[in-house]
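Sample entry (250 residues):
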Amino acid sequence: MCIRDSHSAEQAMHTLMFDASGNLLVQDLLLAHSKNVTDPHRYSLMFLQKHIISTNSGDASGLMNVARNPYASHVLFTLLDVLPAKAHMELCKLVKPHVELLTVHLNGRFVVEKLVASSADIREVLVRCFAKLAKEKGTQHVLLTLWDALDERAAKDLLHNTLLPAVKDLSCNASGSIVVQKMIQDSQQRHEQATRNNLPTNVKATMCLSVERYLNKIDGLKATLLKDFFGKFVVQVLTSSAQPIESSDE
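Predicted structure, serialized as C-alpha cells:
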C-alpha cells in the first residue's frame, strides 16, 4: 500500500509540474526542502533523478517537454536554483545537446538564458551557433546574455571570427539586425561609462568601434546596409544618438 501510494504521489507530482497552479506548489516544495538544515539537497537531487533524468529518453522527450512547457519550465528554473553544483553541472550536460532547439523556443530559451552564466558547455554551443541563432526570432536576450558572460578572449573571438564576417548577413536580417543593434548599444554604453570614469576599455566596450571600422574597410558595405530596410538601422545606431530599433522581435 505504501509503495502504491508513493508511486501515485510521484505521478501526481509530475502532473502538477505541467499545471498552471500545480507548478507553483512544486516550486514551493522544492524551496521548502532546500531550507532543510540537515540535508538541503536531498529532495532536489531525488526530484532531478525521478522527474528530469529518468524521463529523459533518447528522443529527449522528458527534458525537452519540461523545458518547453510554460509551467514545468518554471519548476526547472527553481530546481536550478536549489541544486548543488555537481548536480547543476549534470543537468547542464543534459541540456547541452538541445541548446539550439531550446534557444529558438518561446519557453525553452529562458532555460538556456538561465544557464549561460554558469555553464561553459552552454556558452560553447551558443558561440558555435551564434550566427545561425541570431537570425531566429526571439533569441536576442539569450545572445546578449551570452555576450555579457564571455570573458575577454572569448568575446574577442566571437567578434572577429563570427560577428564581423557575418555582419552584412545579420544586419540585413529582421532578427539579426536587432542582435547587432543591441550589441552595439551595449558597447556604446560600456564605452561611455569607461570614458566618463577614466577606466580602461575592453573588447565589449570597443565592439561598436570595431563594427564601424569594419563597415568602412569593406568597399561598398555601408552603402549596401543603408539601402536595406533592416541594415540601415544598424548604420543609424552606429552614427546616431537616436539609436532606433525597428522590430517586434521581443
